[in-house]
TrEMBL record:
The lineage of its organism: Eukaryota, Metazoa, Chordata, Craniata, Vertebrata. One of its GO terms (molecular function) is zinc ion binding. Residues 31-68 form the MYND-type domain. This is Zinc finger, MYND-type containing 12. Keywords: Metal-binding, Zinc, Zinc-finger. It comes from Salmo trutta (Brown trout).
Length: 371
């Protein structure tokens, strides 16, 4: 039985038809994804509703499985409290849970986007937007991250008109919020750059990515893994323009930044420890994996000319997966790094690569290997 079939079977077991008599007179339940009239409900939380099985399945895979129980206290009718202090305490608790829900759904959507699962990211991004509206109001700057997630998903799906709509809303919100953070500004320009790239407005894309790098460097510094994401996207545009020398230079900057960052993280771990903690969240790991693999794929088309850079990128991927608890992937990329290192005169990384391969081989039997 395939994973998709198993997932559908599991969701089917959590589905029941809505009993109209259980609702207040005149009340209509709306589908979680499309806001049309709902006919089904999740039997696990009983506070989430759907128009059909297809939308329940999409929501379960997209986000609901992770937040099903968290929704119960948020969406259950507020109990009556006679004392004002009790009412205030209850409101504060609900607010904290809503803020937690925003962060969880935002992180899930971002991870799926980095993995290229654009359709699957939509339920989490939509939930993040709705929750942010409930907490902050319909025009607050705190809604911008959710707009950007929805825009990125729609760019990935080729729905450019919808992406442009979300970005226009985000841009307008930022323009009327002078105190908006540098982080939000860099994220906005990064997504505008993605849209311009998709529409083949490459010069416009480069301008937005340059602004992305500027705002990110103001917040995090030039030699930071957040900032180098803008360099990576700029390099991809230069590849489209067949300016390979510029692209290669930017790729080198990205590879060096990640290699330095991962090397420092690896040095903090005790060699004799049996288990490694995750050094960054799943979304960051997915982003790093996506960027480094893409660079390695481009560079492997000319291995002799790019051997030094291949070594750096493959070694980075090996460290990334070792730190993430996947010694099998660390071994795979470590071997690639070692092979590339034989093609360059400078063997300064060879000893470190060999040490990592030895560590990964030792850790393999003791760790659960991630897929």
């Amino acid at each position: 039985m395939s994973s998709i079939t198993r997932s559908k079977s599991h969701v089917s077991a959590l589905t029941s038809a809505i009993n109209p008599l259980a609702n207040p007179r005149g009340a209509k339940k709306q589908c979680e994804l499309c806001q049309n009239l709902a006919h089904l409900q999740c039997t696990k939380c009983r506070v989430t509703f759907y128009c059909d099985m297809e939308h329940q399945q999409a929501d379960w895979v997209g986000i609901h499985e992770k937040i099903c129980q968290l929704l119960i206290p948020i969406r259950t009718a507020t109990p009556f409290h006679s004392l004002q202090a009790d009412r205030d305490h209850h409101r504060t608790q609900i607010l904290h849970r809503q803020e937690e829900l925003i962060e969880i759904s935002r992180a899930v959507a971002q991870k799926k986007l980095f993995e290229g699962k654009y359709q699957e990211s939509l339920p989490a991004a939509q939930l993040s937007l709705r929750c942010a509206m409930d907490v902050y109001g319909p025009s607050a700057v705190q809604l911008v991250p959710a707009y950007l997630l929805l825009a990125e998903a729609n760019v990935g799906l080729g729905s450019l008109a919808q992406a442009e709509g979300y970005l226009s809303q985000a841009e307008w919100t930022v323009m009327k919020t002078p105190e908006c953070s540098q982080t939000v500004r860099h994220q906005l320009h990064r997504n505008l750059g993605r849209l311009y790239t998709a529409t083949e407005n490459l010069e416009g894309a480069l301008l937005h990515f340059a602004n992305d790098v500027y705002y990110a460097s103001e917040e995090y510094g030039l030699d930071n893994i957040v900032t180098c994401g803008g360099y990576f996207l700029m390099a991809n545009v230069f590849i489209k323009q067949e300016k390979m020398d510029i692209a290669s230079s930017l790729y080198t900057e990205v590879a060096s930044t990640w290699h330095s960052h991962l090397t420092k993280l690896l040095e903090t771990h005790t060699p004799g420890s049996m288990m490694l903690e995750h050094s960054f969240d799943e979304a960051q790991q997915a982003e790093a994996d996506q960027m480094l693999r893409a660079m390695l794929k481009v560079q492997e088309s000319s291995p002799k000319q790019a051997a030094a850079q291949n070594t750096l990128v493959a070694h980075s991927l090996a460290m990334l997966w070792f730190l993430g608890g996947s010694p099998d992937k660390a071994l795979e990329f470590g071997r690639k790094a070692l092979q590339s290192s034989q093609l360059v005169p400078d063997h300064s990384l060879t000893e470190r690569i060999q040490s990592l391969l030895q560590l990964a081989a030792e850790r393999g039997p003791h760790l659960t290997i991630a897929s």
